[in-house]
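INFO batch 0412 | record 1 of 1 | parsing
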Amino acid sequence: FFFNDTATTEIYTEQIVGSVRCVQETGIKESDDYKVLEYQTISDYAKTHAPAPSKQTDRSRLVEDYVEPQYNSVEVAPQMDKVSLKPNFPEHEIFSMIGDLKLSTQPKELTDPKSEYQVMLVKHFYEPCFVLEFKVKNTLDNIILKDVTANLQLGSEDLRITHIFSANEIKYNATESFFIIVARNPDQRVITGSGGCFLKFIVCEVNPGTTEEITSYDDEYQIEDVEILVSDYMVPQGLPNLTFTNTFDHIQGEEIAQTYQLSYKTVELAVKGLIKHFGMAVCDSSDEINVNNKFHSLYLSGSYLRLEHVMIICMVGIDANLGCVVKIRVKSKDGVLSTNLVESVS
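INFO prediction complete | emitting tokens
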């Protein structure tokens, strides 16, 4: 029995020789007494965990610029890794049109933990766009924040803010979210950007005992820059040990390669920097460096938005005249994706 996609089959099925073994997450345990698992058990599991069919997105609907109020917000449990949990979006038709959630990043703090307004950012990725969720906590007992949103610049012509959903009200010691939808150029795959960000809101000063409003005024609050990174799009996808080069040679797709002169002072720093940049799984223990070698090869494997397997070879060396020289080789079935990843290093 096979699941709907190869990745799921590989993850959940180790072998079908005599008996079938599935990893613990399936809830189906190994049996020494039976050679075949009951079909209905596997079928029920597959129906529960199989990826939902993709929905065709009408990108023409991602062109309106307006602000909608946020209705309800609930704290999301901390994420240990990139996952596909359904966010608590406002009730608006646009969120049913953008398709299936591919992955969400771990929350990132955009303010000091001791600041009066504490902000965390989670990026939710969909095939045509991504949604920025700003989770704001108000720590002032004499203040209520209203109509909370942000003034954001991402510094890329291929990224366009299309919708903003404000947080209606944030009372003392409460955490609420507002959302910004950013459409991506459909002709590209991995689009990065960064820029300054200011919270915008109405400050309502109140009597802490009665919450009676004393006065109100418009204000803004600077937070850290918002960054959209290459690693945000990628999910690590490991391979069995010592199988990387053979898999790379046989994977379908054209190889895209380019050589760069980078600012790293040592091979070790370059390897660490490239691993962080791509956010992919290190294969064949290639993060371990032999200082006696003139060049070092770093092997990376990952999945773009859980849609496309990507493999990268980074050949790193230090030249006396040129400094750090890196040759990037990328293979995937999507030539645009491979080109985007190669060019991202520059």
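INFO post-check: The longest strand covers residues 213-228.
INFO record closed
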